[in-house]
Amino acid sequence: MSDPNGDDRRTSDESAADLGTGPNDGPTNRPEEATADIDSGTGAGDGTRAGGRDPRDEPMQVATAERRRKTSVISLLVAVLGAWVALSVFVFRTAPAPLWNDVLVGLVVFVAAGYNYYRVTNDVPISTGIASLIAVLGVWLIVSAALLGMVGGLFWSTLATGLVIAGLAGYNAYEAREARAVATETGPGA
């Protein structure tokens, strides 16, 4: 007996043998055929395409790999600069306030940038919040060089390092935001 709604769950071979009909005489329930024709525009849940890949994925993968390479190098450089800020107080003689400022800010920059570097090397996007925090700390280094009365080599070292940290961390924060926007993009016409 046949289902009046035409929702037979038999394969086309069983249908043809039992009913004496051909493979195109009624609907069958084959999920692999049904999903092959679906295109949501997001790539999520879409079936395989001709050639096994979505042609939109290749440029996205190249851009993602390039972005990952750049942000990992920048994060590592910022971590090294944070270590320099923390250790520079031992190279230049200074008062206690600038000493502790540079040590604490340098260690936070080192740990935060190291964390972002760790994330990127493990195929996890960098944290926009952490990159933004590092950029703000870079700006603080610029301000604190004058505010805390640093003089001589420590002043110029803190000022220059703060400028570089703020710029590189700001770039990383921008790239992290852009990467997130691209990853959550719903496709053409969205």
From TrEMBL:
It comes from the Archaea. The chain crosses the membrane at residues 73-93, 99-118, 130-148, 154-174. Residues 1-65 are annotated as: Disordered. This is SPW repeat-containing integral membrane domain-containing protein. Keywords: Membrane, Transmembrane, Transmembrane helix. Residues 76-169 form the SPW repeat-containing integral membrane domain. It comes from Natrinema pallidum. InterPro entries: SPW. The keyword Transferase does not apply. The keyword Mitochondrion does not apply. It holds the Pfam family SPW. Residues 1-13 have a biased composition (Basic and acidic residues).
